[in-house]
Amino acid sequence: MMPELNILMTTSSTLSDWMKQSQAHIEAALTDFLPSPQQTPTHLHEAMRYAVLDGGKRVRPLLVYAAGQLFDADYAELTRAACALEMIHAYSLVHDDMPCMDDDALRRGKPTVHVKFGEATALLVGDALQAQAFLILAQGKTAPARQLEMLRILAHSSGSLGMCGGQAIDLASVGCNLSRDQLEQMHQLKTGALLRASVLLGALCGQELNEIDQAALHRYSHSIGLAFQVVDDILDATSDSASLGKTAGKDAANNKPTYVSILGLAASQTLAENLRIEAHNALHSFTATMQNSRTQRLSQLADFIVQRSA
Amino acid sequence: MMPELNILMTTSSTLSDWMKQSQAHIEAALTDFLPSPQQTPTHLHEAMRYAVLDGGKRVRPLLVYAAGQLFDADYAELTRAACALEMIHAYSLVHDDMPCMDDDALRRGKPTVHVKFGEATALLVGDALQAQAFLILAQGKTAPARQLEMLRILAHSSGSLGMCGGQAIDLASVGCNLSRDQLEQMHQLKTGALLRASVLLGALCGQELNEIDQAALHRYSHSIGLAFQVVDDILDATSDSASLGKTAGKDAANNKPTYVSILGLAASQTLAENLRIEAHNALHSFTATMQNSRTQRLSQLADFIVQRSA
Which of B139, B129, B15 is nearest to B77 (CA)? Predict the structure, then answer.
């Protein structure tokens, strides 16, 4: 059952309630947008569902909904874009966890896809999820020219000049002394690109963006994208695997450069807080001309991304 | 340098000349559509270019051009669709060759991507090529609603109900006794889906398709898609690696069911010939209302696919 839309777009619920309801809605939509496990090849479809369903904070979908609230976007189209982004994110996790990459056995508190289904299936799960993401976004009902723009943003942010490119730099950086600028560049591609795409796609479900809006959204998403990674590095260094739902301490174990290894823990915490403030400042561009309530969820998500504990 | 367009769309050149000129044009376009090797991450971009450029018969691009000729399609848009399809095909080869799949060291006469660049990079090369394929197709200049239809066809034919799904069935079939129907279903997904997509995308670059045209194109591409695989199986069983540019005899070595193993060599050759005739028959639907010259290249490609020696 889908929750009522008026609950989801309301501004009166707490962030925690809004997140829970949005996450439940995304879970239901992902269940629908993934091929049925009864359909041939059943083993692949079962594995695709295992990789995507029942897990994660759904940060990218939440950003899509929050940005959609700014421009009064259609809820069904936001959900579609959110699912496409989440499938891209899920495929990247499946491939990252494989033995030839991070070789990780635990993800979202469960055995990783290659551990449960085998490496060959994990490879195909990732490939098929990427295609599925583009398929569902290409089925969207937004004006065709704008729908194409959304597809270009998704493709660009997930390809060699976005997420995959960041992974490649990450691979090459193991055991290297990166400068802070190089570390930032890597993360802006590896995680930041898809987080920025989430904000943009959410906004584009509502309307064409003028240059001022685009610049403000870029500034917001640049800040939260980087903050997300700084906090990930802090949590990796300070939490245990049970709290994280994935292997903790693996950056240090893998000799990977992180914000904590380059700046130290205290300076990383200060950086995350400054990025949170910067994200709020970027939203002032909208509150000058709109009701504050329109930016409410983006504002709260900036806080959540920095203050989360997992 | 791009060859002159009037040479490429002419009907007076031999198939061999037309193929050479089309292949040269595709090579130049792929070179332009791939990220520059000077751009960061350079190692990934170099590996993507290695995977795509300077190799292969470019059967999918040739089918795009041939189908485009039917409907007088724009040459630049055909080239774009052809490059997107070839990038999807190239990514699938990179991932197929990896140790967790077919574990192959030779492709198109060169070391495979994971042998030359390492497994992690090969994984990312495939992922990034898939995104690049959708990016360039989403940049197309065909009417936006039709461009979206082309993107849906590409995504569907390469995902879990197309190419990836066929791979998954292939994986599960090793050492199994497949029926002829099961073998056909596997190949219609694994290779057939993308070949059918090539014909459809080429036609859609020209115009919206009515149901009669769609049915005829489906019948043609169904036949050549299956013929392609039957001939692949025949060549795998009868050729050496040097002629093929890839490891010969690997189906038998891997205990994979093939047309040759199920039907025998002679019956497989008869089947391929019957499919060639069936493809020609499908084209009669067009020659009833159009000049014969419009179907010339599709007709010749059906012959080429069955009569090729590599």
Answer: B139
- Taking CA–CA distances from B165, the nearest residue in chain A reads A41
CB neighbour list of residue A73: distance below 8 Å, 6 or more residues apart: A67, A202, A203, A205, A206, A207
Answer whether A143's CB lies under 8 Å from A126's CB: no
Domain containing residue A268: CATH number = 1.10.600.10
On whether residue B3 sits in a domain, the answer given is: no
Residue A160: which of B48, B148, B155 has the nearest Cβ? B48
Residues of chain A with pLDDT under 70: 1-10, 241-249
pLDDT digits (tens, 9 = 90+) for A100-155: 999 999 998 899 999 999 999 999 999 999 999 999 999 999 999 999 999 999 99
The residue of chain A with its CA nearest to that of B43 is: A168
Q: Is residue A4 part of a domain?
A: no
In a domain, A5, yes or no: no
Q: Residues, chain A, total?
A: 310
- Contact: A159, B135; criterion CB under 8 Å: yes
B122, B158, B169 ranked by CB distance to A41: nearest: B169
CA pair distance A297, A299, nearest whole angstrom: 5
What is the tally of structural domains in chain A? 1
Q: What is the domain range of residue A270?
A: 14-307
Look at residue B131 and tell me if it is in a domain: yes
Q: Residue type at A252?
A: A
Residues A209-222 have pLDDT tens digits of 999 999 999 999 99
Instruction: Note the ipTM here.
Output: 0.94
* Closest CA in chain A for residue B148: A138
Of B127, B138, B161, the CB nearest to A130: B127
